[in-house]
Design a protein that fits this description.
By secondary structure, this protein is mostly helical. The chain has one helix at residues 2-38. It is rod-shaped.
C-alpha cells in the first residue's frame, strides 16, 4: 500500500523542491532589487 504511493510522493517532493528553489530565487532577486533601488 505504502509502496504504491512512493512514486506519487517522489513527484510531489520534486515539485516542492522546484517550488522552493523558485521562491528562493525570487526572494534573492527581490533582495538584490531592493539593494539596487537604494543606490538611487
Amino acid at each position: 500500500m505504502i509502496l504504491a504511493y512512493l512514486p506519487v510522493w517522489k513527484s510531489v517532493n520534486l515539485f516542492d523542491a522546484c517550488l522552493a528553489t523558485s521562491l528562493d530565487k525570487l526572494f534573492i532577486n527581490f533582495k538584490s532589487l531592493q539593494n539596487y533601488a537604494k543606490l538611487f
